[in-house]
Design brief:
Number of helices: 1
Strand order of the largest sheet: 1-2-5-4-3-6-7
Number of strands: 7
Shape: globular
Strand content: 35-45%
Length: 117
């Protein structure tokens, strides 16, 4: 990214299972401003392996942090991710366009993940 977020950029992709908040897909960058508000959905592109990119809705964090978004349609995302080796997520970042972040999900072990009911 350019100033003031210059340097390598890392992102995190997490599945969260919380007894009170339910199941979430969380995307977070180290530095920068994801253009997705906490009160208004935005659209991101997600590509599983070499399939066509798919639109997903997302929403910003309730605390208004600009580095984190919650990807909607948890079941659809998880279902596609379990069949993939690579997930690429393109997100609009302030003054940076929509870079694609790549995640190796080939080691995901569904038997060790227990989603909230």
């Amino acid at each position: 990214f350019s100033f003031p977020y210059a340097g390598p950029q890392r992102a995190m992709l997490a599945l969260r299972s919380h007894p009170r908040h339910g199941n979430d897909v969380i995307f977070k960058i180290e530095r920068g401003q994801v253009l997705c508000r906490s009160y208004e959905d935005c659209t991101i592109l997600v590509r599983f392996d070499d399939d066509e990119a798919q639109s997903f809705s997302a929403v910003g964090a309730a605390d208004n942090s600009t580095e984190t978004i919650f990807i909607r349609n948890y079941s659809r995302f998880l279902s596609r991710m379990q069949k993939a080796n690579t997930v690429r997520i393109a997100v609009n970042i302030y003054q940076q366009g929509a870079p694609a972040f790549e995640f190796d999900v080939s080691g995901f072990d569904a038997t060790k993940y227990k989603p909230a009911k």
